[in-house]
Design goal:
The chain has about 425 residues and is of the alpha+beta class. The protein has 7 helices and 14 strands. The mean pLDDT is about 90.
Length: about 425
Amino acid sequence: MSEVRYQGHCRRRTYQGFSLVELMISLVIGLVILGALVTLFSSTSRANREMATANSVIENGRFAIQLLENDVVHGGFWGTHVPVFDDQTSEEIPADVPTLVPDPCLTYNTANWDLEYVDALIGIPVQVYGDDVFADATTCDEASIFVEDDAQPNSDVLVVRHADTCEAGVGACEPDAIGNLYFQSSLCTTEDCATPPDVILPRPFVLDRTLADSTADEALFRFRQRDGEDRATKRLFVSNIYYVENRVIDGQSIPTLVRSAFDAGVPAHTPPEPLVEGVEAIRVELGVDNLSQTGADVDFSAQVAWADDTTRVVALNRGDGMPDGLFRLCSVNPCYNTDPVQDALHAFTLTNVVAVRIHVLARSRDETRGYTDTKTYRLGNSTTVYGPYNDGFKRHVYTTTVRLPNIAGRRLRP
Protein backbone atom coordinates (compact mmCIF):
# COMPACT_ATOMS: atom_id res chain seq x y z
CA MET A 1 0.00 0.00 0.00
CA SER A 2 1.33 3.42 -0.84
CA GLU A 3 0.28 6.96 -0.28
CA VAL A 4 0.30 9.80 -2.76
CA ARG A 5 -0.13 13.34 -1.57
CA TYR A 6 -1.75 16.01 -3.71
CA GLN A 7 -1.94 19.55 -2.28
CA GLY A 8 -2.09 18.42 1.24
CA HIS A 9 -4.53 15.65 0.60
CA CYS A 10 -3.63 12.02 0.96
CA ARG A 11 -5.15 9.43 -1.39
CA ARG A 12 -4.71 5.69 -1.02
CA ARG A 13 -3.90 3.77 -4.32
CA THR A 14 -4.52 0.03 -4.63
CA TYR A 15 -3.18 -2.60 -7.11
CA GLN A 16 -5.55 -5.20 -8.66
CA GLY A 17 -4.79 -8.29 -10.92
CA PHE A 18 -6.95 -10.70 -12.99
CA SER A 19 -9.68 -12.45 -11.21
CA LEU A 20 -9.86 -16.24 -11.28
CA VAL A 21 -12.74 -16.14 -13.76
CA GLU A 22 -10.87 -13.84 -16.08
CA LEU A 23 -7.79 -16.05 -15.90
CA MET A 24 -9.80 -19.16 -16.73
CA ILE A 25 -11.48 -17.42 -19.64
CA SER A 26 -8.09 -16.33 -20.95
CA LEU A 27 -6.75 -19.86 -20.67
CA VAL A 28 -9.74 -21.28 -22.52
CA ILE A 29 -9.38 -18.75 -25.31
CA GLY A 30 -5.66 -19.52 -25.56
CA LEU A 31 -6.30 -23.24 -25.68
CA VAL A 32 -8.90 -22.78 -28.42
CA ILE A 33 -6.46 -20.73 -30.48
CA LEU A 34 -3.66 -23.22 -29.83
CA GLY A 35 -5.93 -26.12 -30.80
CA ALA A 36 -6.87 -24.36 -34.00
CA LEU A 37 -3.20 -23.77 -34.81
CA VAL A 38 -2.33 -27.42 -34.07
CA THR A 39 -5.22 -28.59 -36.25
CA LEU A 40 -4.16 -26.26 -39.04
CA PHE A 41 -0.54 -27.42 -38.76
CA SER A 42 -1.58 -31.07 -38.69
CA SER A 43 -3.88 -30.60 -41.68
CA THR A 44 -1.20 -28.75 -43.61
CA SER A 45 1.40 -31.42 -42.79
CA ARG A 46 -1.00 -34.17 -43.84
CA ALA A 47 -1.75 -32.34 -47.10
CA ASN A 48 1.97 -31.90 -47.74
CA ARG A 49 2.58 -35.60 -47.10
CA GLU A 50 -0.25 -36.52 -49.46
CA MET A 51 1.17 -34.17 -52.06
CA ALA A 52 4.63 -35.70 -51.66
CA THR A 53 3.16 -39.20 -51.91
CA ALA A 54 1.21 -38.34 -55.06
CA ASN A 55 4.28 -36.66 -56.55
CA SER A 56 6.43 -39.72 -55.79
CA VAL A 57 4.01 -41.99 -57.68
CA ILE A 58 4.01 -39.59 -60.63
CA GLU A 59 7.78 -39.19 -60.60
CA ASN A 60 8.43 -42.93 -60.27
CA GLY A 61 6.06 -43.83 -63.09
CA ARG A 62 7.16 -41.11 -65.48
CA PHE A 63 10.85 -41.62 -64.77
CA ALA A 64 10.56 -45.37 -65.36
CA ILE A 65 8.64 -44.83 -68.59
CA GLN A 66 11.16 -42.23 -69.76
CA LEU A 67 14.16 -44.44 -69.01
CA LEU A 68 12.72 -47.40 -70.90
CA GLU A 69 11.49 -45.26 -73.78
CA ASN A 70 14.85 -43.52 -74.25
CA ASP A 71 16.61 -46.86 -74.58
CA VAL A 72 14.00 -48.69 -76.65
CA VAL A 73 13.84 -45.92 -79.25
CA HIS A 74 17.51 -46.64 -80.10
CA GLY A 75 16.91 -50.37 -80.48
CA GLY A 76 18.33 -51.64 -83.77
CA PHE A 77 20.69 -48.67 -84.25
CA TRP A 78 23.93 -50.02 -85.71
CA GLY A 79 25.52 -46.91 -87.12
CA THR A 80 25.53 -47.06 -90.90
CA HIS A 81 24.77 -50.78 -91.01
CA VAL A 82 21.44 -51.97 -92.40
CA PRO A 83 20.80 -55.74 -92.39
CA VAL A 84 20.25 -57.11 -95.88
CA PHE A 85 16.82 -58.49 -94.94
CA ASP A 86 15.72 -54.93 -94.12
CA ASP A 87 17.54 -53.23 -96.99
CA GLN A 88 14.98 -52.69 -99.72
CA THR A 89 17.67 -51.39 -102.05
CA SER A 90 19.39 -54.78 -101.99
CA GLU A 91 18.86 -57.23 -104.82
CA GLU A 92 20.31 -60.17 -102.90
CA ILE A 93 18.56 -63.01 -101.13
CA PRO A 94 19.16 -62.14 -97.46
CA ALA A 95 21.69 -64.37 -95.73
CA ASP A 96 21.57 -62.54 -92.38
CA VAL A 97 17.98 -63.30 -91.32
CA PRO A 98 18.04 -64.37 -87.62
CA THR A 99 17.35 -68.09 -87.22
CA LEU A 100 17.45 -68.22 -83.42
CA VAL A 101 16.44 -66.13 -80.42
CA PRO A 102 19.74 -65.04 -78.83
CA ASP A 103 20.50 -65.69 -75.18
CA PRO A 104 21.32 -62.15 -73.93
CA CYS A 105 23.74 -63.45 -71.26
CA LEU A 106 25.60 -65.99 -73.38
CA THR A 107 29.30 -65.96 -72.49
CA TYR A 108 31.36 -63.98 -74.97
CA ASN A 109 33.84 -66.06 -76.95
CA THR A 110 34.35 -66.91 -80.60
CA ALA A 111 32.69 -70.30 -80.20
CA ASN A 112 29.49 -68.93 -78.66
CA TRP A 113 29.32 -65.67 -80.59
CA ASP A 114 29.44 -67.28 -84.01
CA LEU A 115 28.02 -65.77 -87.20
CA GLU A 116 24.52 -67.16 -86.61
CA TYR A 117 24.40 -65.79 -83.06
CA VAL A 118 25.75 -62.36 -84.06
CA ASP A 119 23.16 -62.14 -86.86
CA ALA A 120 20.50 -62.72 -84.20
CA LEU A 121 21.98 -60.03 -81.92
CA ILE A 122 21.95 -57.51 -84.75
CA GLY A 123 18.60 -58.49 -86.26
CA ILE A 124 16.67 -58.83 -82.98
CA PRO A 125 17.30 -55.67 -80.92
CA VAL A 126 14.31 -56.12 -78.57
CA GLN A 127 13.37 -59.24 -76.61
CA VAL A 128 10.72 -59.78 -73.92
CA TYR A 129 10.31 -62.61 -71.42
CA GLY A 130 7.90 -63.35 -68.61
CA ASP A 131 9.62 -63.31 -65.22
CA ASP A 132 8.68 -66.96 -64.64
CA VAL A 133 10.51 -68.28 -67.73
CA PHE A 134 13.48 -65.93 -68.07
CA ALA A 135 15.79 -68.03 -65.89
CA ASP A 136 14.94 -71.21 -67.82
CA ALA A 137 15.17 -69.55 -71.23
CA THR A 138 18.56 -67.87 -70.72
CA THR A 139 21.84 -68.23 -68.82
CA CYS A 140 21.28 -64.95 -66.96
CA ASP A 141 20.56 -66.73 -63.67
CA GLU A 142 23.88 -68.59 -63.91
CA ALA A 143 25.67 -65.27 -64.41
CA SER A 144 23.89 -63.77 -61.35
CA ILE A 145 22.19 -61.27 -63.61
CA PHE A 146 18.71 -62.47 -62.69
CA VAL A 147 17.68 -64.08 -59.41
CA GLU A 148 14.25 -65.61 -59.86
CA ASP A 149 13.41 -65.56 -56.15
CA ASP A 150 14.07 -61.80 -55.99
CA ALA A 151 12.17 -60.93 -59.16
CA GLN A 152 8.73 -59.37 -58.82
CA PRO A 153 6.10 -61.90 -59.99
CA ASN A 154 3.86 -61.10 -62.97
CA SER A 155 6.36 -58.63 -64.39
CA ASP A 156 8.26 -58.80 -67.67
CA VAL A 157 11.95 -58.79 -68.52
CA LEU A 158 12.95 -56.42 -71.33
CA VAL A 159 16.17 -56.73 -73.36
CA VAL A 160 17.32 -53.87 -75.61
CA ARG A 161 20.39 -53.87 -77.89
CA HIS A 162 22.03 -51.30 -80.14
CA ALA A 163 25.31 -49.58 -80.86
CA ASP A 164 26.28 -46.56 -78.78
CA THR A 165 24.80 -43.36 -80.18
CA CYS A 166 28.15 -41.56 -79.91
CA GLU A 167 31.37 -42.44 -81.70
CA ALA A 168 34.32 -43.66 -79.64
CA GLY A 169 36.61 -40.75 -78.79
CA VAL A 170 34.34 -38.08 -80.30
CA GLY A 171 33.02 -35.30 -78.06
CA ALA A 172 32.05 -36.57 -74.61
CA CYS A 173 32.11 -40.20 -75.76
CA GLU A 174 34.74 -42.37 -74.09
CA PRO A 175 37.82 -42.98 -76.24
CA ASP A 176 38.55 -46.25 -77.97
CA ALA A 177 39.83 -48.54 -75.20
CA ILE A 178 41.82 -51.74 -75.56
CA GLY A 179 39.69 -54.80 -74.81
CA ASN A 180 36.32 -53.08 -75.24
CA LEU A 181 33.75 -54.63 -77.55
CA TYR A 182 32.98 -52.37 -80.53
CA PHE A 183 30.76 -52.44 -83.58
CA GLN A 184 32.07 -51.07 -86.86
CA SER A 185 30.34 -50.81 -90.22
CA SER A 186 30.50 -48.75 -93.37
CA LEU A 187 28.47 -47.79 -96.42
CA CYS A 188 31.07 -49.06 -98.86
CA THR A 189 30.62 -52.43 -100.52
CA THR A 190 31.87 -55.64 -98.95
CA GLU A 191 34.61 -56.00 -101.56
CA ASP A 192 35.81 -52.40 -101.20
CA CYS A 193 35.87 -52.67 -97.42
CA ALA A 194 37.82 -55.92 -97.36
CA THR A 195 41.54 -56.11 -96.68
CA PRO A 196 42.91 -57.15 -99.11
CA PRO A 197 40.18 -55.98 -101.54
CA ASP A 198 39.69 -59.39 -103.16
CA VAL A 199 38.69 -61.02 -99.84
CA ILE A 200 34.93 -61.38 -99.48
CA LEU A 201 33.80 -60.82 -95.91
CA PRO A 202 30.80 -62.74 -94.54
CA ARG A 203 29.11 -59.57 -93.27
CA PRO A 204 29.70 -55.84 -93.86
CA PHE A 205 30.46 -55.17 -90.19
CA VAL A 206 32.83 -56.12 -87.39
CA LEU A 207 31.82 -56.88 -83.80
CA ASP A 208 34.99 -57.48 -81.83
CA ARG A 209 37.36 -56.20 -79.14
CA THR A 210 39.97 -53.52 -79.72
CA LEU A 211 43.47 -55.01 -79.93
CA ALA A 212 46.56 -53.60 -78.22
CA ASP A 213 48.61 -53.92 -81.41
CA SER A 214 47.54 -51.00 -83.63
CA THR A 215 48.45 -52.81 -86.85
CA ALA A 216 46.45 -55.89 -85.90
CA ASP A 217 43.57 -53.68 -84.75
CA GLU A 218 43.63 -51.82 -88.06
CA ALA A 219 43.37 -55.15 -89.89
CA LEU A 220 40.55 -56.35 -87.63
CA PHE A 221 38.45 -53.19 -87.82
CA ARG A 222 39.10 -52.89 -91.52
CA PHE A 223 36.09 -50.96 -92.74
CA ARG A 224 36.33 -47.55 -94.34
CA GLN A 225 34.02 -44.62 -94.88
CA ARG A 226 32.21 -44.28 -98.18
CA ASP A 227 35.27 -42.54 -99.63
CA GLY A 228 37.18 -45.81 -99.13
CA GLU A 229 40.03 -44.00 -97.34
CA ASP A 230 39.04 -42.82 -93.87
CA ARG A 231 38.55 -45.45 -91.21
CA ALA A 232 34.91 -46.13 -90.32
CA THR A 233 33.76 -45.15 -86.84
CA LYS A 234 33.68 -47.60 -83.95
CA ARG A 235 30.79 -47.68 -81.49
CA LEU A 236 30.46 -49.53 -78.19
CA PHE A 237 28.16 -52.53 -78.17
CA VAL A 238 25.21 -51.75 -75.87
CA SER A 239 22.89 -54.31 -74.29
CA ASN A 240 20.54 -53.64 -71.35
CA ILE A 241 18.28 -55.98 -69.38
CA TYR A 242 15.42 -54.41 -67.39
CA TYR A 243 13.16 -56.06 -64.83
CA VAL A 244 11.54 -55.44 -61.43
CA GLU A 245 13.25 -56.79 -58.34
CA ASN A 246 12.22 -56.73 -54.70
CA ARG A 247 14.94 -54.90 -52.79
CA VAL A 248 15.21 -54.33 -49.05
CA ILE A 249 15.82 -50.61 -48.48
CA ASP A 250 15.95 -49.22 -44.94
CA GLY A 251 14.40 -52.42 -43.67
CA GLN A 252 11.48 -52.19 -46.11
CA SER A 253 10.91 -54.42 -49.15
CA ILE A 254 10.43 -52.09 -52.11
CA PRO A 255 9.83 -53.27 -55.70
CA THR A 256 12.47 -51.53 -57.81
CA LEU A 257 13.14 -51.27 -61.53
CA VAL A 258 16.69 -52.54 -62.07
CA ARG A 259 19.01 -52.74 -65.07
CA SER A 260 21.85 -55.05 -65.95
CA ALA A 261 24.09 -53.22 -68.41
CA PHE A 262 26.58 -54.88 -70.73
CA ASP A 263 30.13 -53.92 -69.76
CA ALA A 264 31.99 -53.77 -73.07
CA GLY A 265 35.30 -54.08 -71.27
CA VAL A 266 34.63 -57.49 -69.66
CA PRO A 267 32.68 -58.10 -71.96
CA ALA A 268 29.60 -59.38 -70.14
CA HIS A 269 26.46 -58.24 -68.39
CA THR A 270 27.02 -56.81 -64.93
CA PRO A 271 24.87 -57.47 -61.83
CA PRO A 272 21.68 -55.38 -61.85
CA GLU A 273 21.68 -51.89 -60.38
CA PRO A 274 18.58 -50.08 -59.05
CA LEU A 275 17.06 -47.39 -61.24
CA VAL A 276 13.62 -46.43 -59.92
CA GLU A 277 12.07 -47.39 -56.60
CA GLY A 278 8.36 -48.00 -56.32
CA VAL A 279 7.82 -49.79 -59.66
CA GLU A 280 5.37 -52.62 -58.95
CA ALA A 281 5.46 -54.25 -62.39
CA ILE A 282 6.21 -53.69 -66.07
CA ARG A 283 4.50 -55.29 -69.04
CA VAL A 284 5.89 -54.98 -72.57
CA GLU A 285 3.93 -55.62 -75.77
CA LEU A 286 5.47 -55.91 -79.21
CA GLY A 287 4.05 -54.51 -82.45
CA VAL A 288 4.97 -56.96 -85.23
CA ASP A 289 5.13 -56.00 -88.90
CA ASN A 290 4.66 -59.41 -90.56
CA LEU A 291 2.54 -58.29 -93.51
CA SER A 292 3.44 -56.24 -96.55
CA GLN A 293 1.55 -53.19 -97.76
CA THR A 294 -0.56 -55.50 -99.92
CA GLY A 295 -1.42 -57.81 -96.99
CA ALA A 296 0.90 -60.59 -98.16
CA ASP A 297 3.19 -62.36 -95.71
CA VAL A 298 6.72 -61.06 -95.22
CA ASP A 299 9.15 -63.50 -96.84
CA PHE A 300 12.89 -63.12 -96.40
CA SER A 301 13.72 -66.30 -98.30
CA ALA A 302 13.72 -64.39 -101.59
CA GLN A 303 14.97 -61.06 -102.84
CA VAL A 304 12.64 -58.06 -102.72
CA ALA A 305 9.66 -58.50 -105.06
CA TRP A 306 8.05 -55.29 -106.28
CA ALA A 307 4.49 -54.70 -107.41
CA ASP A 308 5.98 -52.48 -110.12
CA ASP A 309 9.67 -53.02 -110.74
CA THR A 310 10.00 -49.68 -112.51
CA THR A 311 8.78 -47.53 -109.59
CA ARG A 312 9.69 -49.86 -106.69
CA VAL A 313 7.22 -48.30 -104.30
CA VAL A 314 5.24 -51.31 -103.05
CA ALA A 315 7.24 -54.33 -101.86
CA LEU A 316 5.19 -57.52 -102.04
CA ASN A 317 7.25 -59.60 -99.60
CA ARG A 318 8.61 -57.01 -97.16
CA GLY A 319 7.01 -55.16 -94.26
CA ASP A 320 5.60 -51.66 -94.46
CA GLY A 321 6.85 -50.42 -91.08
CA MET A 322 3.44 -50.62 -89.39
CA PRO A 323 2.39 -53.15 -86.71
CA ASP A 324 -0.14 -55.71 -87.93
CA GLY A 325 -2.91 -56.87 -85.59
CA LEU A 326 -2.79 -56.71 -81.81
CA PHE A 327 0.44 -56.05 -79.98
CA ARG A 328 2.01 -59.29 -78.82
CA LEU A 329 2.45 -60.03 -75.11
CA CYS A 330 5.39 -62.41 -74.78
CA SER A 331 4.62 -63.25 -71.15
CA VAL A 332 1.35 -64.82 -72.36
CA ASN A 333 2.45 -66.03 -75.79
CA PRO A 334 6.19 -66.74 -75.31
CA CYS A 335 8.61 -65.29 -77.84
CA TYR A 336 11.16 -68.05 -77.47
CA ASN A 337 11.30 -71.84 -77.67
CA THR A 338 14.09 -74.36 -77.19
CA ASP A 339 12.90 -76.39 -80.18
CA PRO A 340 14.98 -75.25 -83.21
CA VAL A 341 12.01 -75.09 -85.58
CA GLN A 342 9.83 -73.13 -83.18
CA ASP A 343 12.78 -70.97 -82.16
CA ALA A 344 13.29 -69.95 -85.79
CA LEU A 345 9.63 -68.92 -85.99
CA HIS A 346 9.96 -66.83 -82.84
CA ALA A 347 13.16 -65.29 -84.23
CA PHE A 348 11.25 -64.34 -87.38
CA THR A 349 8.55 -62.68 -85.25
CA LEU A 350 11.07 -60.70 -83.19
CA THR A 351 12.91 -59.66 -86.35
CA ASN A 352 9.74 -57.89 -87.50
CA VAL A 353 9.13 -55.89 -84.31
CA VAL A 354 8.69 -52.23 -85.27
CA ALA A 355 7.01 -50.83 -82.14
CA VAL A 356 7.00 -51.47 -78.39
CA ARG A 357 4.22 -50.65 -75.94
CA ILE A 358 5.36 -50.28 -72.34
CA HIS A 359 3.10 -50.43 -69.27
CA VAL A 360 4.36 -49.47 -65.81
CA LEU A 361 2.49 -49.96 -62.53
CA ALA A 362 4.04 -47.49 -60.08
CA ARG A 363 3.38 -47.16 -56.35
CA SER A 364 4.34 -44.82 -53.57
CA ARG A 365 7.27 -45.71 -51.39
CA ASP A 366 5.41 -45.03 -48.13
CA GLU A 367 1.89 -45.92 -47.08
CA THR A 368 -0.78 -43.26 -46.59
CA ARG A 369 -2.45 -43.35 -43.20
CA GLY A 370 -6.17 -43.94 -43.47
CA TYR A 371 -6.00 -44.99 -47.15
CA THR A 372 -6.67 -48.50 -48.46
CA ASP A 373 -6.00 -49.46 -52.08
CA THR A 374 -8.98 -51.61 -53.06
CA LYS A 375 -8.61 -51.02 -56.80
CA THR A 376 -7.54 -53.53 -59.45
CA TYR A 377 -5.18 -52.83 -62.35
CA ARG A 378 -4.73 -54.22 -65.86
CA LEU A 379 -1.60 -53.70 -67.95
CA GLY A 380 -2.35 -53.80 -71.66
CA ASN A 381 -3.83 -57.00 -73.08
CA SER A 382 -2.58 -59.07 -70.17
CA THR A 383 -5.24 -61.13 -68.42
CA THR A 384 -3.35 -60.72 -65.14
CA VAL A 385 -5.27 -58.65 -62.63
CA TYR A 386 -3.11 -56.74 -60.17
CA GLY A 387 -4.77 -56.12 -56.81
CA PRO A 388 -6.74 -55.38 -54.82
CA TYR A 389 -3.70 -54.95 -52.60
CA ASN A 390 -5.67 -53.74 -49.56
CA ASP A 391 -2.70 -51.75 -48.28
CA GLY A 392 -1.94 -48.08 -47.83
CA PHE A 393 0.22 -47.59 -50.94
CA LYS A 394 -1.09 -45.41 -53.75
CA ARG A 395 -0.65 -46.72 -57.30
CA HIS A 396 -1.00 -45.54 -60.89
CA VAL A 397 -0.57 -47.11 -64.34
CA TYR A 398 1.49 -45.42 -67.06
CA THR A 399 1.59 -46.46 -70.72
CA THR A 400 3.56 -45.36 -73.74
CA THR A 401 4.09 -46.68 -77.27
CA VAL A 402 7.56 -46.38 -78.79
CA ARG A 403 8.19 -46.67 -82.49
CA LEU A 404 11.53 -48.22 -83.48
CA PRO A 405 12.65 -45.73 -86.15
CA ASN A 406 15.79 -47.68 -86.98
CA ILE A 407 13.65 -50.63 -88.09
CA ALA A 408 10.28 -49.18 -89.08
CA GLY A 409 11.91 -46.33 -91.00
CA ARG A 410 13.74 -48.74 -93.31
CA ARG A 411 10.46 -50.30 -94.39
CA LEU A 412 8.55 -47.14 -95.16
CA ARG A 413 8.17 -46.22 -98.80
CA PRO A 414 7.24 -42.77 -100.17
